[in-house]
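Summary for the lay section of the report: proteins are chains of building blocks that fold into shapes. Here we show the chain for Ciliary microtubule inner protein 1 and then a coded description of the shape we predicted for it.
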Amino acid sequence: MSQKNKLNFVAEAQIWKDHIETEREAARRWPSRWGFLLTSVEELLKDEEKQPPKPKIPLPQHLQIRPVTPVEKYIKIHPSPPVPQTTQGFIGWRSTVPGLELERYYQIRSNKGAFYKDLKWPNEPTD
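The coded shape description reads as follows.
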């Protein structure tokens, strides 16, 4: 029998009793610590004096807020122009123009030459 499968029932029972005792102690202390959460807001605010509303004073014309003007009156939004053709689409690895792609016959062609030519390596790997 492996060490994992051996159970100590006495220790497990004591751990369970400790958990239960901790829960009971927390339940006993809860009202003194958190009992104020059970009081309703209306009951808490019943002793508060209600402040009378302040009288509204009419503002002079130059201080009054003007009504909101819609943004469309000042800002005109036109449709976006078409996406411009980039150099990636014109010349590059995935060129849309057939004569300008850099890959021919699945080999990369570079006008500076290839690195393997500088090192005088063969085109294809050999075993």
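Put simply, here is one thing we learned. DSSP finds four helices and two strands in the chain.
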